[in-house]
Amino acid sequence: MREEGAVNGGTGARASSVSASSTATAVNAPAAASPVAERLPRPSMRRLLRPKWHTIRNRVRKSDAKEGWRWLIVIAIGLLFWGFAMAVLVRVLTYFRGTPEIGLLLAGKLLGLVFLSFFAILLLSNVITALSSYFLARDLDMLAAAPVDWLQFYLAKLLETLIHSSWMVALMALPILSAYGYVYQGGAGFVLVALGASIPYFAIPAAVGSAITLVLVNVFPARRTRDLLSVVAVLAAGALVMLFRLLRPERLVRPDGVRSLVDFVAMLQTPTSPFLPSEWAQRAVMGSLTGDLELLPLYLLWTTAAVIVVGGALLHRALYDVGFSKAQESAHRSSRKGALAALAYRALAPLGALRRELVMKETRVFFRDTTQWSQLILLAVLLVVYVFNVKLLPMGSEGVTFFLVNVVPFLNLGIAGFVLAAIAARFIFPGVSIEGRTLWLLKSSPLPMGALLWSKYWTGTLPLLALALIIVGVTNALLGVGAFIFVVSLCSIVVLTFALASMALGLGAVFPRYESENAAQIPTSFGGLVFMLTSVVLVAGVVLLEARPVYAYLRARAFGEPIAASEMVVGFVLAFILCAVATVVPLEVASRKLDALEV
Amino acid sequence: MITLRSLTKRYGPFTAVDSIDLEVAKGELFGFLGPNGAGKTTTLRMIAGILRPTSGSVVVGGVNIAEHPAAAKAKLGFIPDRPFIYDKLTGAEFLRFVAGLYDQSGPIVEKRMDELLSLFDLFEWKDELVESYSHGMRQKLIISSAFLHRPEVVVVDEPMVGLDPKAARILKDLFKEYTRRGHTIMMSTHTLEVAESLCDRIGIIQGGKIRALGTMDDLAERAEEGVQGLEALFLRLTGERASRALVEVLDA
């Protein structure tokens, strides 16, 4: 019985599966098949989407002054980011515009690259979002049991998927398109064309993504599909980053490797991907900016979108019933106590029963959650890219002084600190929030909240520390730095790691999101933003405090001057104190916050 | 074994529990009844140390939970109404984890674990991830976890939700046997037959206040003429009018 998969619940699950199948039929049964179709209630797509709209409206209405301030800060930071991105792009495009012959080609190529990257992101994002909106959302049981027309259901969920997976890309695209419009003086026509190209450009990946998910769910159970998709998405994203980095797009604006200008122009004129909507969108937008508007790309975009949405609807009609039924089953997985777990049990025995169980629980929950560890793959890719970039630095070239060879690794410490902060935000910051649904157990037991934080702190800090030492150690070795800077950067990254992990855990407890079901979404909250900003301040503080003694040492080495011991001690001691405070205070605050917590 | 003194819980202007005084003796099985939103769960969660009272005190086994939370909680086992637990642990790992929270481990825990899992027909499932358990199986696992460290007091919020008839029967027997051995159980329930057949004493709460308290016989004696049985008494105290209004709504 169990091999077959049972089961959100043994025997009970089977019953629910059967009932789900029959209720799903209610959603998808063609209305015409019913002899009383005329008298049936037929909720419209607008009605199906109304609860989502009301949720947003109520959240805005019910938000208090504190919430209002949070939003203001988030909007202000968003506007700053927009302004920055637009300013950089305006500068680049102005430079292109002043370059005769190839300037316009370069601008078009850049826009094509942006649209292509966005299209890949949109496709991945839609595949994952569609799984939630069509198969795992909480409102599905209710909708499946209601007399909802299959087409209205498909379209409502498609729109929901499209909005959820595309809003961030749309926000990113806005300053980019604005910069193009500003530099190339696109008027109302440009705005209309950009809008007209954007709608099908966003709709196509939504419909394709939903169709892919529908097919996958019909092949695998929904929960296994989610695991599978997480890994596929992360691998694809990793491959994309790796490919982008290995292609070295900076060579596009520094064409030293191309034999002649003619070859370079020919390369720019060749469409990157003539059959992809990203290319059509780019041609439409660039055409409107140069006054040479092509209607064919727009026609291709709209007709393709229409065909894919209709095809998706037909596929939905044919496959959704079975898929929804399968989604009620969960992957049947067992886990027997292996040799590794037994070894870990013995190794952790000196910690006592309480701490050992806490550490074991943290480790198991993390590694068994595919959505968590699959992101480690992406992390590994990003690290390879980081080390690859450091390796590419021309440190051995002529004109690179002893000073520069040692200053670059010191600044590398700041970048490594930022990378570690980002990793801590993803893996340590959600630590307290993910306990939301089990807090009843922890709070009703005699477990001191300090012990809970202790286990979360060390299970998060030790891997982070190993990573920190590898990043700084490997990059320093690649850069060939002197022993002094090597030791300084290693010691600094150790104390920084302890502080960053503590801040991530502490601020995660101060700004928890207990209601969140997805750990990956927690760092994108207001608290996550506060953590990243505080981390930048801490890393900058340590780098600034250590800059003076490092400078004094390098000067002494370069010019044979005596080293001022007091200056060295003060700088390093102050940096150490800063990190010590940043380690102790957040954990203390978090402990008090958890002690006072009511669930 | 459980003493509540002027126990009050307010959420802003709303008073969920209004100055409750209650004494539950050692070896007693106490039933807490009331309509939805009456304050049952809030009271139980304050006893379990999950919520802090706005005023008043909770004493478990002679230990004030506000003053010595760890000592009081060590005497207590809590079973919530909604079985949220770690999906990515197996049943056995979850139970070992809970035992660890009470600083217990080793062969005794393993033996008790196997006994409890066998009692609730979960032994075969002990190495399966909790995410593959049904609602009722999760509930049985949580019940097992609450009894694992042999607490002096067990606080239970809606124990029968999601249980099949066999498990419900086992649970009733377990409750009876546990209290017979001198332990104390305080449970809230909407199943009046369960309360009537199991509980030594019953308290009916509405609007955050205890409206009636005593054994079934006491309650029957105090009831007005024409009110017979716990259901009739419950409806009289907590809103018979509502059930009449329901009939009018359905007839409309």
Keywords:
heterodimer, A: mainly alpha, 20 helices, B: 252 residues, 4-stranded antiparallel sheet, 10 strands
Can you describe what's shown?
With 599 residues, chain A is an all-alpha fold. In chain A, 77% of the residues lie in helices and 0% in strands. Chain A has helices spanning 10-28, 45-62, 65-97, 103-136, 140-145, 150-183, 188-219, 222-247, 261-269, 277-290, 295-327, 339-347, 352-368, 370-392, 402-427, 439-444, 449-479, 483-510, 526-559, 565-596. The longest helix of chain A is centred in the N-terminal third of the chain and has 34 residues, at 103-136. Chain B contains ten helices and ten strands. A six-stranded mixed beta sheet of chain B has the order 6-7-8-3-9-10, sandwiched between helices. In chain B, helix 3 packs parallel to helix 5 (135-148). The longest helix of chain B is centred in the C-terminal third of the chain and has 16 residues, at 165-180. The N and C termini of chain B lie far apart (50 Å). Chain A binds chain B through residues 2, 6-13, 223, 330-337, 352-354, 356-358, 360-361, 364-365, 368-369, 437-448, 596, 598-599, and chain B through 45, 48-52, 69-71, 73-74, 76, 78, 80, 84-86, 88-90, 93, 96-105, 125, 127-129, 131-137, 145.
Record the SSE blueprint.
The complex is a heterodimer of chains A (599) and B (252).
Chain A: H1 10-28, H2 45-62, H3 65-97, H4 103-136, H5 140-145, H6 150-183, H7 188-219, H8 222-247, H9 261-269, H10 277-290, H11 295-327, H12 339-347, H13 352-368, H14 370-392, H15 402-427, H16 439-444, H17 449-479, H18 483-510, H19 526-559, H20 565-596
Helix pairs in contact in A: 1-11, 2-6, 3-4, 3-6, 4-6, 4-7, 4-8, 4-10, 6-7, 7-10, 7-11, 8-14, 10-11, 13-17, 14-17, 15-17, 15-18, 15-19, 17-18, 18-19, 18-20, 19-20
Chain B: E1 2-11, E2 14-24, E3 29-33, H1 40-47, E4 55-60, E5 63-64, H2 69-74, E6 76-79, H3 91-101, H4 107-119, H5 135-148, E7 153-157, H6 165-180, E8 184-188, H7 192-198, E9 201-206, E10 209-214, H8 216-222, H9 229-238, H10 240-251
Parallel strand pairs in B: 3-8, 3-9, 6-7, 7-8
Antiparallel strand pairs in B: 1-2, 1-4, 4-5, 9-10
Helix pairs in contact in B: 3-5, 4-5
